[in-house]
Structure formats: C-alpha cells, structure tokens
Amino acid sequence: MLTKFKTKSNRVKGLSFHPKRPWILASLHSGVIQLWDYRVGTLIDKFDGHQGPVRGVHFHTSQPLFVSGGDDCKIKVWNYKTHWCLFTLLGHLDYIRTVQFHHEYPWILSASDDQTIRIWNWQSRTCVSVLAAHNHYVMCASFHPKDDLVVSASLDQTVRVWEIGALKKKTVSPSDDIMRLAEINSDLFDSVDVTVKYVLEGHERGVIWAAFHPNLPLIVSGSDDRQVKLWRMNETKAWEVDTLRGHMNNVSSVMFHAKQDIIVSNSEDNSIRVWDATKRTEIQTFRREHDRFWSLAVHPEINLLAAGHDNGMIVFKLERERPAFALSGDSLFYAKDRFLRCYEYSTQKDSQVIPIRSPGTPSLNQSPRTLSYSPTENAVLIFSDLDGGSYELYIIPKDRSDVVQDEMRGKGGSAVFIARNRFAVLEKSTSQVLVKNLKNEVVEKSSLPIPADAIFYAGTGNLLCRSEDKVVIFDLQQRLVLGELQIPFLRYVVWSNDMESVALLGKHYIIIASKKLAFQCMLHERIRVKSGAWDDNGVFIYTTLNHIKYCLPNGDSGIIKTLDVPIYITKVSGNTIFCLDRDRKNRAITINATEYIFKLALLRKRYDHVMSMIKNSQLCGQAMIAYLQQKGFPEVALHFVEDERIRFNLALESGNISVAVASATEINEKDHWYRLGVEALRQGNSRIVEFAYQQTKNFERGEEQCSVKILDNAGHLPLAYITASVHGLNDVAERLAIELGDNVPSLPEGKTPSLLMPPPPIMCGGDWPLLRVMKGIFEGGLESANRGGNTEIEAILDDEEDNDGVCEWGGIGDLDLPTELDSLKVSVSACSSVFITPTQGMPVSQIWSEKSSLAAEQAAAGSFDTAMRLLHRQLGIKNFAPLKSKFLDLFSGSHSYLRAFSSSPVVPLAIERGWSESSSPNVRGPPALVFDFSQLEAKLKSGYKATTAGKLSEALRVFLSILQTIPLVVVESRREVDDVKELVIIVKEYVLGLQMELKRREMKDDPVRQQELAAYFTHCKLQTPHLRLAYFSAMTVCYKAKNMATAAHFARSLLDTNPTIESQARTARQVMQAADRNMTDATALNYDFRNPFVICGSTYVPIYKGQKDVACPYCTARFVPSQEGNICTVCDLAVIGADASGLLCSPSQVL
Fold first, then answer.
1. Tens digits of residue pLDDT in 779-812
2. Distance CA 375, CA 342 (A)
3. Can you list the domains of the chain with their CATH numbers?
C-alpha cells in the first residue's frame, strides 16, 4: 500500500471521489461532511446540515453537486461551489445507509433501514419509485455502471438485483413526474417499473455490502459472516462462484478495482485485504493497530482507493505506477507488460525486445523499480522490490531471432551498471557494494562510507549513495568520497547530458548540484514531484502531478504547461518533451520554451539573444514584467508594456527620464509630475525639474510661510514670531505670541522689513549631475524601439515654452529666467541613454517567509499573520496571547542592526541559522531562532527539580512555558521530531497533574473532592520519584479521611515503585497494616482504579474507557464532550476538538 493522503477526524462512514478533480468527500459520524483535496492535503470546505451521523455521500459525474444521506432520515443535495444545500428529500422512515447519483439520468438511489430502496428525480425533487422486497435493513444499493440494473444488500442475508429498464423508458422530465405523483402515492409499494431479477442467497448472516464489476457480469458481496462472496450472472440466472475467507470480523465494504482484476475489502478486524479476482486468493493484507474500517471508495478513472476508519481516512494506491526506463542515445528502454521494449525517438518506433519475468503477483502487476542499461554489452539490469529487493540481468541478443539467454538473478538493496561490463549491488545489512561482472560473479567488494539504503549511477566507477538525511558520491576504485550533501530523503537522481550537473528529486523538493555535490539551488513544491530531465541548454525540466515546470541554474522556476494526468519525462529535445504516461505509453508533447530560454539568456548575460528574442518573440504578461523588475532589468520590461502608468513606474525605476516624461504627459496627473520632478532632481536634470514643478504649480514654494514653519519646528519661536508679524501672517503670529507669553520680542520702529533672498547666480552651467550612473547594457538596441524618446521630450517642452496660454500661471515668459536655459538640448542629451540605477533586492525576511512552511521561521521573518494561520491549521491554536512575546523574541533574535553614522539610518542584518564563511552568498539559509530543543530539555530538568522540591507553582510555570514554546521550535532530523512529540506528551502530563494538585491544595472545605483530585494525580504519567510523591500524597489524604481501602491501594502502588526514602516505605507499610483490619471506605469517591480512564483537563473528572471524549489537537489532553470548542485549559492555546494536521517542526516533515 502506498499511502498518498490521510486525515484525522471522527469516524468516517462514507466516501466519494470526484471523477475529475483531486477531491474526496468524507461523511463523518459527527454529522459533518468534509471536502478534501488529497493532492495537496488541504481541507477545502465543511458542510453542516445533518443531525446525527452521515452514512452516505456521492459526487455527481458532471454537475457541481453531491448528495448525502444520514441518520436524520434526510437526503440533501448540495452545491459545493455555493456551499448551499439546494433541497432536502423526505420519505424514508429510518436511517439512510447509502446514496448515489445515476451516471446518466437525473436520479438518486437511496437505501434505508426502513427496508426500502428509493429512486428520486433530483430535478423534480420527487420519488419516482420505491423498491420494497427486503424484510430487514437495506445496508447498501448502487446502480450498475452501464446496464439498467440495481444491486442491494440487506441484513435479511440476501443480495438482490433489480431491473429498472421499464422505469428508464418512461419520461423523466419534471412535468411527467408531477403527473405521476397521484399514481405513485396510491400504489407506492406495488410498482411494476422496477422488478427483482435475481435473489442471491448464500451468506449465513446479514449482508453489509454488494457491488457490480465495472465491465464483467460479476457481483461481489461482504457480510457479517466475515466472508466475501463472488457471484456471476447472465440473462436468466445468477449463481455463486466462490467464497473468499480471511477476515476475522464483520466485512464493512467490498469493491472491484477499477483497473485490475482484483477485489478490495475492509472490515471491523482493522484490516484491508486485496484478493485476486481470477484465482480467488488473498494477495495482500494491510492493518491498522486500533482502527476499525467502515467504508471504502474506488476512484472510477485512476488507480486510487480510499478507506474510512474510526479516526479518519486514508487515500492509497496498491502499487507504484512510475515506469522503469533507461535512456541510451536515441533509444529508450522500458518495461511494460512482462516485456522489455525499445522506443526510438527519431523514428518514434516502438518495438518489443525480449520477454522479462514479471515480479510479484500477476494480478497486481508490480512493475520494476529501476532499469539500467549497458549499451556496449547490450545488457539490461532490472531491479524490483520483490523479496526485499532483487535484480535480474538480461543479455539482449544482437539478432532479434536469436534465442534469449536465461536471466541471471540475485538479491540486494539496489543494482546499477557502473561500467561497460560491471554492475554494483548494494548489501544493506553490511553497507557494502558488490561489484559483479556479466556472469553475475563477484569481482570486488567495497565498504560504503555511510549506511546507505540505495545507490545510483554517478559516472563510470562512481556511485551516489543515499542515506536517510544525506547523499555522497563514492569512487569505488580509489575508495574516496568525492562529494557530500545534507538533504532530506532522496527519491530520484537525474544527471545532465554532460554529467556536470545533477538534479536530486525528493517528494516535495528539487536540489540542483554540481558533479561533486556542490549545492547550487533548491526548489520547494507543494505538489509531489514526479520526474525530470535536462534539456540541451542546461535547464532542468520537471513534472509534478499537474504541471510541467522548469528550473534555471539559479533556482528560478515557472510553469510551462498544465497536465490532465501525470507523466514521466524521459527526454527533452528542443521544444518537444518525450515522456511515458501511467499506462507506459510513449508520448511527445510540444511546449513553448521561449520564456525560460529568455530568462536563461538574461541569467547568462547573453544580451544579443535577449535583443533578438525581444524583437521576434511574443513575450508578455505581468509575470514576465515582475520577473524583469525583480532581476534588475526594468528597462527591458519597458518594451513589453503598453499601459502608461506601468511604463512610467518602470521608466523611473530604470532612470529613463525620456520615457517618464512622455508617459507623465499622457497621464497628466499631479502625483506623477511630482515623482518625475523628484527623479529628475536626483539625476540633476534641472530643466525637467523646472518643467515638472510648473505642472504641479510648485515652482515657487511660499517662502514666507516656509520660513516661519522652519523656524517654528526648529524651536526658534522669537524669530518665527518676527517673520510672521512683518509678513502679515497675523493668525500664526498670535499663536506664537501666546506660546511666548512674556517673552514676545518687540519690533524696531521706523524700519521697513524685507525678505532675505539668496543672491542670483553669476552663471549657470546647465544640469548638475548628482548621481553617477552608467549606460545600460541594452543601450543601442533598445533605444531605437523606445517609445517616446528624446525628440518627444524636446517637442513637449518646446510646445510648453511657445504656448504661453497653456500654463495656468500665465506662461513661463512671466519668469525672469536666465537666457542660458533657452535650449533643452544639452539637458536632453545628458539623458539620451537608458541608464541602470541601483535597485533594491528582496529583503531576507521576505525570502524566509516565501520559502518556509514552519511557523517559527515565519515569526522570525516578521510574518506573524502567516505564522498564526499555520499554527491554527496545524495545531488548532486560537489563543495567541501567550505566544505574543515569543513571536517578538523570534523576530528580534533573527535580526541585528548596525549604526554607521548618526545622520544615516541603521542597517538591518538578517541572522541566518548555520551560517559559515564557506556559505554561498547567493543562497539564503533559514533564520536563526532563539528557541531550540536543548533549551527545552534544560527547562524540563529545572521543572523536574522544582517538582521534587515541592515548588509546584514554579514547576507549573516552567512546564507551561515549555508547552507553549514547542510550537515555535525547529529541529533538523526526523528522530528529533519524534523527541519533540514525546516532549509534548511528557509536559502535558505534568501540567495537568500539577494543575490538579494545586487545585486540591486550595480546596480546604471539600475533603471528598480533595481525595478525588489526589487520586487522579496518581494516574498522570510522571517520573518515578514524582509518582512516588503523588502516591504518598493520595495515600495520606485518603487515610486521614478514613477511606482505608483506597489508601491501601495507593500504599501498595507506592511500595511497588521500590521507594528509596525509607520513611515513605515505612509509612506505606503501616497504612497497609491498618487497612487490613478495616478494608472499607468511609466516603464514596468518583474513582475506580480497576477501570482504565483518562482525566478531563478542564473539569478534572475521569473519562472511563468506552465513554465519548474530545481531545486538544496540540497537547492531546482529553476532555468531556461538553468542552468542545473551548480553549484547552492545559496548553492554553488550542481549541478543543478542532481539526488540525499535526505538529510541523522540521524541514524534513515538509519535504
């Protein structure tokens, strides 16, 4: 079983796959219907409308609808786009077990405990037929996928096949149905539209499920007699073919596989079993430890199944669908249908080469895992997982008519060719590689430098060895490690054509490295990565479940094409991608490579190619514009933009004043003229500054008001008062006089004031360049295509100068400007080229936020909202008040600040985790975090110490601090993830126990409750010294209250721990001696140590085994059902009973 997706929830009673989209509906025993995207693992929506369990659910094949039926006797039809229940169908008198849409007609089929099956017209919302022949609960009913038949299963121990052809022939329009209402109501249970065709008897107990074969005249059924029966039918009769035995409890559901001749069943014995439908034998069994299975669904189109159990559901495959292939020049060798086949790319000819042994069972058709080919010796090495790992070596005859030699076999963890006539076999148990010749003889043994679980080809004589968290390249001849790289679990390796680069593919990541594993870049994908190949330009082309994408050498990526079904790339040649699909058919897909070739040319600074592509290609789109801006080429982006506002922004960013003036003239808004003036001032182009300020009426800046304001802000109130007074600014002068009070200065009499102005310039040399800039790399080629160039600026400015009436100020002629400024030719020529100005890069915190799915790293990056959303989705956390200070600590701890000069702003620096001097400057590591696991371990020890010393309040604060810090801790390995999860359980037990003990000490007037809390404290999973203290405390409280029997139980439990303190042991023995004389309890307690229980974290009452409870999704504390929806009182963070995906604290969990 290959698990693709799993959920945690209440018991799943019904499942339905969407026929086209990667969605699945799950109806829960709690009454909620969940809609999941199993491809990305996210909950899309929830539907609440039923009261009580929902047992049946089904998607419509073409409309955005699904139908549900539940214990409230209601059938509801929903529109999942609008989230509305469109209508409810009423008629059944008892629980509804299953519902199903007809694949062609507007019908819904429902089965109920009222012993009837009903067919409804969902368009007219009426019941068109009632099928009443069973005399017990009808557990399921379903339409035949092609014929006019219905099959039903009942607790009356029969399976019935119904003929609905007569009903189908009748008109199913709404009007006809309404006319037939009277007829249906008068003779509801005597309909001749549907008749029983066969009654299948053979089960010894009630039948739970029955289903049709999608193509053959077969029926499979499952029963409470723990048996699965196979039935065959023809036009006149139906009979039992065989019985499949193996389940140890009631069979819950059974179905035929959509693609293969196998039967899948699940049961209340916690197992899913796979049967060979041809041989009628059991093939495989999959078990869960504590969960009974209740429902089963088979995808109608692809190789996917789903099973619902007590605590959620799983979506899974029965086998791998990835084809094994090897590329050699123009030929592709691959395994298909027990044959080795060869596909020639040039002629697109596909031929059968030799027969091969199919590993595994023929019915499951388990395919080989890898295929390796030696072109010089014409030999093929096929490795599969059969028997724990085995390989087969085939020598292909040169003449197809020659007899094929028998294959040579062996066992190992992996097998690949490493030279012309040598191949390597991995022995996992000894971490050795056996080098063998083509006679399957061992010629050399080598010990690997790491405990590898797989090996891959890495050049002649070299192996790439994989362990759990790193890969190494090992030279077998020199026995040297040529390269090493720490990565999450690796799945596939793809080498470039020149063997200079390698792509390492994981489940959700791609790492590009050199031939010696020097790290170059890394990509993260939310959708699973399926395959990849290098093209002739050194670009890695890869596929996910639904896209073909590219990855440039610097890590930039993008989408090339959307896929309907997954494919596996074998070769990329020009604009053609050759691939194999899941049916192992060769396909050639034509793509448009212009986008990534353009980006590659920019990356490699092949600007002649960039110019050619700009002139000849249809590159456009906001994504391309944003990319060019991000990479520092806004002047290139200018040539893909028609919108004037975007052109204006790009022109300012690139320093292209000529385009900015032309765009500002077209837009003609004050804000744009102001921004143009600022940029022109920055470049030192005084004439354009003057022109822009004219358009904003900002040429003269109100000297008197400005002077007063400057003096006022500087604190020179007397000077500000004098300036305001002499220039007639009476309101401002009065306000300043009030502020000055008795210190108002007196103005001299008999003198005429005047405003001091700077002296006129003796000469003007034109523009004064304030910023030293360089000409752009695209200077010559792009200027010719630049719309609105320098000539246009001259025309705009000349027109303004000649047309005095245009300016609202009365024209530039009113200004006494120097004659040297009559011509703009000098200033225009100064900016006649496209310039590149320094552009700000992406902040490191933004890079952290975009790359990480861990809440701690999002908080360190300052993305508090994202961190809170992640914690809510992963752990159900809603109360973030205790985490506020920790968020701030993470953010401040991952940043530092440098002060250069008092007049300049501080320079922020991002602190990266694991940084070293050898780190690449172009690759950003994750943020440094102030919380780590070792700190929590130290805190745990201090909490233990405080508990031992009796400082329970202090210990509670320490343990609660640990519990509230764990969601913001990041660890590296999967082993540490398990340690973190174990720490959550440990700390939760201490927090709950200490809360109860402190509450007990506060209760002085209720001895019964004191005893109960002391007794519950002993059931917390504490360290042995602390458990002894809990036993001693409970023994003492109960003994004082004359509950001798209970006190004796605690004394006995204390002695069982072999206490090291003699006084505790002596007291316990004395209590037992006293209790032996009177083994009774004076007061009754809500406590039964013989019946296993957990303690409610809020009410502190026992929840005995078998009683309903709800849990905190983070700390797993248990609560009575009435506490659902409240904040957990143990961790004080999460919502009790909320759906959550689980703790995410390591990059190894994301990848």
1. 444 444 444 445 555 555 555 555 444 433 344 3
2. 13
3. 2-168+192-317 (2.130.10.10), 321-486 (2.130.10.10), 620-696 (1.25.40.470), 703-740 (no CATH)
